[in-house]
Automatic annotation (TrEMBL):
It comes from Saccharomonospora glauca K62. HAMAP family: SRP54. GO terms for biological process: SRP-dependent cotranslational protein targeting to membrane. InterPro entries: AAA+_ATPase, P-loop_NTPase, Signal_recog_part_SRP54_M_sf, Signal_recog_particl_SRP54_hlx, Signal_recog_particle_SRP54_M, SRP, SRP54, SRP54_GTPase_dom. SUPFAM superfamilies: P-loop containing nucleoside triphosphate hydrolases (SSF52540), Signal peptide-binding domain (SSF47446). This is Signal recognition particle protein. One of its GO terms (molecular function) is GTPase activity. It is an enzyme of class 3 (hydrolase).
Length: 441
């Protein structure tokens, strides 16, 4: 994964105050590979990398994260920003009916989306009308009617036996029908071709002019990868659109199409489709898509949790003490609490990249065990916590009694503390900084 590759690229960086130009260049290469693997279009990759580089240059190496994590954090934030930051809501007209028109290549998922959107709107108390303006393919109208039935909404279609019918005329009449039958949203399904062609564009533009949509949604299959850019440009120039819907995210596409389309057209992604069922549909979440493109949800979660749990001041204090071997039981307790705040230890261990020894140590400590350890430390006097060496046999007995544990448990804790202190000193030497690096927890 990108995480592993960045970690190896940035190995020598630990302990430096800033990312050097060489480090940033090496990092940029790895990010570039990751984005290309996610099917992001090349020109988009180039511009994105430039942005990330600029930002990485000014960044101080954080205390909470190791350099690889920090670069990933920057990349992730930039991605979320480009993908739209906050989720953009559907624009509905003040005076109903609102008109939503769907455009896109054949097979991109327009008809399925019409049903999904209708169901989604219906659940919010709207009364959508589906409109069949794909009169190209023989089964297109029936398909929309089936989808409409499943969603429990009405479908407006040309009467059978009237020949092929004119999609523009159907679109126009559907608005009158919506007014008459009090549908507050009209969803217009249009025809698509396998490739972009002029006739298709002209027809879509004519339908658009007939119904003046409040939203024109460009529906794009996430699996088409690099082609998303050319298709999006063609629809932008031929029909124009106000938002994007990404479909087939249940496939193995990493979602680079999202970044490409968003970057090239500047239009927001409103919805994401991830399956054939009508419920497989949600508003678009830029943060989820970013972690999908980077292919490392776990690492991102870990970064977030590490930052939340991290108390800069305390950690700096502890880190400063590490080198001199002055870590106290008080610090030990604080560190354990910080680790606990990061969630169940089991989850955490699964996400930690290469914290070998520490993993083994922590693996023996479950949450209830931590509670007992904390109780023991609380049973100590401040002098004992600050200088555990003075904890002799009689003190151990007193502590055990006071915290309701056996003397053996107190012994274990004290021994474990001395072991941990030794280990942390070694790690501090190796990584150049102390407890602040979440990978060392
Ligand atoms: P249209 O030609 O743009 O109207 O596309 P359709 O709605 O007919 O969809 C084409 C095919 O893709 C159908 O077999 C759908 O069941 C399928 N499909 C649509 N959306 C999704 C999706 O999000 N995930 C998956 N797996 N299949 C989808
Ligand atoms: Mg269709």
């Amino acid at each position: 994964t990108l995480s592993d590759r960045l970690t190896s690229v940035l190995q020598n960086l630990r302990g430096k105050g800033k990312l050097s130009d060489a480090d940033i260049d090496a990092t940029a290469r790895e990010i570039r590979i990751a984005l290309l693997e996610a099917d992001v279009a090349l020109p988009v990759v180039r511009e994105f990398i430039k942005q990330v580089k600029d930002r990485a240059k000014g960044a101080e190496v954080s205390q909470a994260l190791n350099p690889a994590q920090q670069v990933i954090k920057i990349v992730n934030e930039e991605l979320i920003g480009i993908l739209g930051g906050e989720t953009r809501r559907l624009n509905l007209a003040k005076n109903p009916p609102s008109v939503i028109m769907l455009a896109g290549l054949q097979g991109s998922g327009k008809t399925t989306l019409a049903g999904k959107l209708a169901l989604w709107l219906k659940k919010q108390g709207h009364t959508p009308l589906l409109v069949a303006c794909d009169l190209q393919r023989p089964n297109a109208v029936t398909q929309l009617q089936v989808v409409g039935e499943r969603a429990g909404v009405t479908t407006f279609a040309p009467e059978p036996g009237n020949g092929v019918g004119d999609p523009v005329d159907v679109a126009r009449r559907s608005i009158e029908e919506a007014r008459r039958a009090q549908h507050d949203v009209v969803i217009v399904d249009t025809a698509g071709r396998l490739g972009v062609d002029e006739e298709l564009m002209r027809q879509a533009a004519d339908i658009r002019d007939a119904v003046t949509p409040d939203e024109t949604l460009f529906v794009v299959d996430a699996m088409i990868g690099q082609d998303a850019v050319t298709t999006a440009e063609a629809f932008r120039d031929g029909v124009g659109f106000s938002g994007v819907v990404l479909t087939k995210l249940d496939g193995d596409a990493r979602g680079g199409a999202a970044l490409s389309v968003r970057h090239v057209t500047g239009k927001p992604i409103l919805f994401a489709s991830n399956g054939e069922k009508l419920e497989d549909f949600d508003v678009f979440h830029p943060d989820r898509m970013a972690s999908r493109i980077l292919g490392m949800g776990d690492v991102l979660t870990l970064i977030e949790q590490a930052e939340q749990a991290f108390d800069q001041e305390k950690a700096e204090r502890a880190a400063a003490k590490l080198g001199t071997g002055e870590l106290t039981l008080e610090d030990f307790l604080e560190q354990m609490q910080a680790v606990r705040r990061m969630g169940p230890i089991g989850n955490l261990l699964g996400m930690l990249p290469g914290a070998g020894q520490m993993k083994e140590q922590l693996a023996q400590v479950d949450d209830s065990h931590l509670d007992r350890l904390q109780a023991i430390i609380r049973g100590m006097t401040p002098a004992e916590r600050a200088n555990p060496k003075i904890i002799n046999a009689s003190r151990r007995q007193r502590i055990a009694k006071g915290s309701g544990v056996t003397v053996r448990e107190v012994n274990d804790l004290v021994n474990r503390f001395f072991e941990a202190r030794k280990m942390m000193q070694q790690m501090a030497g190796r990584f150049g900084f102390g407890l602040g690096g979440s990978a060392t927890k």
